[in-house]
Amino acid sequence: MTQDWLRWPEEQAREYRARGFWDGRTLDALLREGADLHGERTALVAGGDRLTYAGLDARVDRLAAGLSSLGVARGERVLLQLPNRGEYVVTLFALLRAGAVPVLALPSLGAAEVESLVRTSEACALVVAQGRGRSDPRTPAARIARAVPSVRHLVVVGDPGDTGGVRWEELALSAPLPGEGRGAAAPEGGAPRTAGVAGAASEDLALLLLSGGTTGAPKLIPRTHADYGYNARASAAACGVDGDAVYMAVLPVAHNFTMVSPGIVGTLAAGGTVVLSPDPSPTTAFALIGAERVTITSLVPALVPSWLDEAGRTGHDLSSLRVLQVGGSRLDDTTARRVGPALDCRLQQVFGMAEGLNNYTAPDDPDDVVCTTQGRPLSPADEVAVVDEDGRPVPPGSPGELLTRGPYTLRGYYRARELDALRFTPDGFYRTGDLVTRSARGDLVVVGRVKDQVNRAGEKIAAVEVEEYLLALPGVRAAAVVGVADPDLGERSVALLVCDGERPDREEVRAAVLGRGAAAFKVPDEVRAVAELPLTGVGKVDKRRLRRELEGA
């Protein structure tokens, strides 16, 4: 069942198998093995649910049987759009166990984006949750189900209302399991086990992720059982996650960061406990850290300042927290240095992409490395190159675009061949679009995006570099630099600042930028105060929206 867009060259595939990166297991087998090894250990805490490994495995079996009874067949795609709740984890593994392919959609996606994903994937079903008011996903999901010919079923966690959908809870409880009543082995609750999908191969398509890009319709990223399982297991090892770890998912559960860095899959593969936080606020999260003795969690940079501020006044016990991971975009050095003192834990910077490559700072890295770099590649088989505009390697310390290939980096987008020609080199390296520098020992520092630049009078200004200078100013909580069309300069640079008090004026900004040794052309042409910066669904600053608003002002 291996499709063209999943194919690594056979020589590389043989190497990845021989070196044990691809170990022949499917993702649902990782959970099954966890039930065998750690049956009564707590696997998942979500709201009022506390499931052991055996209990979670039994629920997955039951729902997999229910999905099969609907006619969901091996290889069919199912769009999964659920918030941070236990049903997400159960449904994810049940789809995998039934041989279906989950399409992981963030709850923040709009109806047009969801419909685009459903049409591209030719999904046979959608799984959504009951909501409230205008944010209720049931209504657009029902419309999409009627409009897209491939969709046969709508499954709703909660009340389906007048959508004509199937209630998730009934589907998860009513379907008989294969062998039921005929002496099949029964884990917790007496439910017989399914045998999994006959003939499922670890190198088959396992799931489809959303690209983290902010332009155009969302693209789908194919991941196999082999590469995604390796990604999760290797990440758990790199992050020191084992059976004693308690990982809290704060970011959306469909985010690749929350899935395998090491996330939900990596933690369950290691025998640890996963705790789902319903929202990312420090008030909610700190209560869970204290109650569940959370040891590791993950944030995007935009959330870090509020966590650090709240840590100074919270009454919750945060002493169990050992590691705060920060990734998704560049964390400025100033905020990075606040993490350890404020939370009394270790910062781990994470730089990666749903397309594959993950980079981590190591637990034993010196503070200066942890606070100023975004880590090193996860796998010894990760190949990286940093190149200039003509594709030539640049020397250590010089900025260039990051190219990569390896045992868990895609070789092509799903049903988007026209994009592959732009995003991959002829020899299979993925063009990440990230501008980085690399030290002699391999530490990467993200300095921007290839397109996240201001082209001011012919001078290329990396927005991330100037944002770093601005965030060092007193009272500046967040900063974004964007280029706006200008008749004389081509583009002028505009700095948008979220401040605690009065914003610094342009002369103060000028002094700060020049004081860091930067060229004068990097001083923003305009400085504005804003109440907040808009974010994309994956927690990155939505610069496309900012630029549109500025040019329309």
UniProtKB/TrEMBL annotation:
Domain AMP-binding enzyme C-terminal: 465-540
Record domain AMP-dependent synthetase/ligase: where: 32-414
PROSITE patterns cross-referenced by the UniProt entry: AMP_BINDING
Domain of life, source organism: Bacteria
Pfam families, per the entry: AMP-binding, AMP-binding_C
Official protein name in the record: AMP-binding protein
Taxonomic source organism: Nocardiopsis codii
Lineage: Bacteria, Bacillati, Actinomycetota, Actinomycetes, Streptosporangiales
